[in-house]
C-alpha cells in the first residue's frame, strides 16, 4: 500500500502543482524497469531501449493528468511503454530481426554467452509471448496487470506465458543450460 500511496502523492503533486521534482522521483523509481522491459524486446539494443524509455516517460508526463488511479501507476506506465513498443515495431519492423549491434552488446561481459542465448531464444518467441514473459519474469507484473497493460484477456496471457516458458525451457535445455 505504501508504494502505491507514494506514487499517488507524487502524481498528485505533478498534476496539481506541475512539480517536476515529483515526476523526476517517479522516473528514478521506474526507469530501470521500463528500460529492462525494452531491452528484452530490442534483443539487448541499449540505445534503442533508452530512446523508447525516454519516449515512454515523455508521454507519461504529457498525459499524467489522465491517470485515474484505476490501476497502479506502474501498470499505467507499462501500458504506455507497451504502446510505445508497438509504435516502434510498426515503424521499424525491428522485432523480427536481430540487429548486429544487439548481438555485440549481448556477447559482451562475463555472462555474454548466456545473454546471447537468451536473446536468441526470446527472438524465437512470438511477440505476445515475449511481452508476457518479459512483463512477468523480468518486471514481476501479475497476470491481471499484464492483461491490463496489453489489452489481452487473462486466460490468453496464461496461454502465452505457458507456451513461451515451454519454448524457453526447451531452447535452454537444448543449449546446455540444464
Description:
The protein is built from 9 helices and no strands. The model is unreliable at 94-110 (pLDDT under 50). The chain is mainly α. It starts with a helix and ends with a helix.
Number of strands: 0
The H/E string reads: HHHHHHHHH
Shape: elongated
Report the mean per-residue pLDDT as an integer. 83
Low-confidence stretches: 94-110
- Beta content: under 5%
Euclidean distance between termini CA atoms: 39 Å
Task: Give the topology.
Layout: H1 2-17, H2 20-41, H3 46-63, H4 73-92, H5 100-107, H6 112-124, H7 127-138, H8 143-150, H9 154-174
Helix pairs in contact: 1-2, 2-3, 2-4, 2-7, 3-4, 4-8, 5-6, 6-9, 7-9, 8-9
Report a brief summary of the structure.
With 178 residues, the protein is mainly α.
Question: What brief labels describe this structure?
Answer:
178 residues; 9 helices; elongated
